[in-house]
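The authors assume throughout that readers already know how a fold can be written as discrete tokens. Each protein is reduced to its one-letter sequence and a matching series of backbone shape codes. I therefore recommend that a typical entry be quoted early in the introduction. For illustration, here is how one protein appears when written out as sequence plus structure tokens:
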Amino acid sequence: MTDTDDLIIGSDGLARPAWAAGTDLLRDYYDTEWGMPVRTEQGLFERLSLEAFQAGLSWELVLRKREGFRRAFAGFDPDVVAGFDEEDVDKLLENPEIIRNRRKIEAVLRNAQATVALRAKGGLVDLVWSHRPAENLRPRTLADIPSRSPESEALAKALKKAGFTFVGPVMCFALMEAVGVVDTHLLGSHRRGTSGVWD
């Protein structure tokens, strides 16, 4: 039993939010990756890029195409992607393995360039993690989880100032959740507190 309808007990006896219980792909992502700390530049650049592609679409679609994205964007190596040109954009727009949206593709290229440039000022990892809030959320239901926060608004502003695009406060909050900067696992979820960042 759980104290919220937003948690579902799986056949393995573990409690997960409804969004993570729908398919094997989402369940595996939730169980092994979502909310775990990402503290490498390449890892954060990948998550930032995938969040941009997800805008207006389902996260499951992005996950299904993740390996295709990795192949198309050189494993999300910022140095390589920063060197992509218009010819590369045209090739990406013909690639059925990814989400073919010119604005999002061009945003990833600009964000790669911004990631490389940011190294002179401490780097992407320090910038993202410097926006960790003083206190964590303790949501019992999905309704308790905001779509943005003062910290995500500040992060979006800082990223834009550093030359990043497609980085609004809602997307930044989703990124912060995904990479462990905040822990929005519901109380009662088997993943609550497993990141090592928060209790």
Q: What stands out?
A: The CA atoms of residues 69 and 98 lie 6 Å apart.
